[in-house]
């Protein structure tokens, strides 16, 4: 039986021909990393390879690591296997990993989205034989509203809260979602304040992206100066003593899971904005079609449902277990990402 070019084992996605792992979840000698979120770039590998714009991100999060950066579409070989990184559009520095060996091509997406958010380098389809795709939002119920409309709604919400004399507290992941929000907030409405976790990450990324001015909230920050402005915070700040300084405030969360009203109610959020850094149902299907692939491997998300649908469409589709996390609506699940 032919050994697959990429195989899933207890450490991660393994390329035996090159003796290298893609986004491994246990320590390995050599890891190619798709992006900087904590479930895909973990501590403990001897050597990391990633896109150069992701290098400062994972150094900030992981500390003193041995890491090298490569450019988009730059081919590098390991034991005769050709690798290259291609924009995934998920967050800043996020990549799809293309693997080619003896005429066979696989693409591992990591996490990705097809809408250009104005922050990450936009997603580019990559031709392949086998496509490893996440399916976080792999249900027909998920259909994203264009970003422009979502941010009009967010800025109108902020303006209304200001008119009512209340502070707007907007929750989002400290890496990726927070910077996307920041980039498109209308700073003419007022000042943009940030939780320390978000400010720290944004400072790392200011060399790459032109963000509006932000003000870090510290112990010295007065409640009176925050009033009527907007605060970007990780979900882990919800319900904490830190948020008391914002009173009177209104909360909102930006997530694909805000599609479901129950997700907002369960988490005691006043307002939900449907904004995801992952593909919706149609985005997933279109991406797969554009690769020209015959085989699809579905990971983290609605894997069983999505792969079944793909098989009905004629694809050779199956699922594989990973230790990657889907974007979650559970605010408490932000703690690992936002504590770094």
TrEMBL record:
GO terms for molecular function: exonuclease activity; ligase activity; RNA endonuclease activity. Keywords: Exonuclease, Hydrolase, Ligase, Nuclease. The keyword Ligase applies. Its EC number is 3.1.-.-. InterPro entries: MBL, RibonucZ/Hydroxyglut_hydro, Xnuc_lig_assoc. Residues 318-340 are annotated as: Disordered. It comes from the Bacteria. This is Ligase-associated DNA damage response exonuclease. It comes from Christiangramia sediminis.
């Amino acid at each position: 039986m032919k050994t697959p070019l990429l195989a899933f084992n207890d450490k991660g996605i393994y390329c035996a021909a090159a003796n290298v792992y893609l986004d491994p979840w246990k320590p390995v000698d050599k890891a190619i990393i798709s992006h900087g979120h904590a479930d895909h770039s973990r501590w403990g590998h001897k050597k990391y390879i990633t896109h150069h714009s992701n290098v400062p991100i994972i150094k900030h999060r992981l500390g003193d690591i041995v890491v090298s950066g490569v450019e988009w579409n730059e081919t590098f070989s390991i034991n005769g296997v050709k690798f290259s990184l291609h924009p995934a559009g998920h967050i800043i520095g996020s990549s799809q990993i293309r693997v080619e060996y003896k005429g066979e091509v696989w693409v591992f997406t990591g996490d990705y989205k097809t809408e250009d958010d104005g922050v990450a380098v936009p997603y580019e389809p990559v031709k392949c034989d086998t496509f490893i795709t996440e399916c976080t939002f792999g249900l027909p119920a998920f259909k994203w509203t264009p970003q422009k409309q979502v941010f009009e709604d967010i800025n109108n919400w902020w303006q209304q809260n200001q008119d009512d004399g209340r502070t707007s507290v907007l929750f989002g992941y400290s890496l990726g979602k927070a910077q996307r929000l920041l980039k498109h907030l209308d700073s003419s409405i007022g000042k943009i304040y940030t939780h320390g976790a978000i400010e720290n990450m944004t400072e790392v990324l200011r060399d790459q992206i032109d963000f509006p001015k932000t003000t870090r909230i510290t112990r010295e920050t007065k409640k009176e100066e925050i009033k009527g402005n907007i605060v970007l915070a990780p979900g882990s700040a919800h319900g904490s003593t830190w948020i008391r300084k914002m009173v009177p405030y209104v909360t909102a969360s930006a997530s694909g899971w805000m599609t479901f009203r129950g997700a907002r109610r369960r988490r005691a959020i006043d307002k939900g904005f449907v904004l995801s850094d992952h593909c919706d149902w149609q985005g997933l299907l279109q991406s797969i079609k554009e690769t020209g692939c015959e085989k699809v491997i579905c990971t983290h998300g609605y894997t069983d449902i999505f792969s079944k649908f793909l098989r009905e469409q004629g694809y050779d589709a199956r699922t594989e277990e990973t230790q990657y996390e889907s974007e979650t609506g559970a605010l408490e699940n932000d703690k690992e990402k936002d504590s770094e």
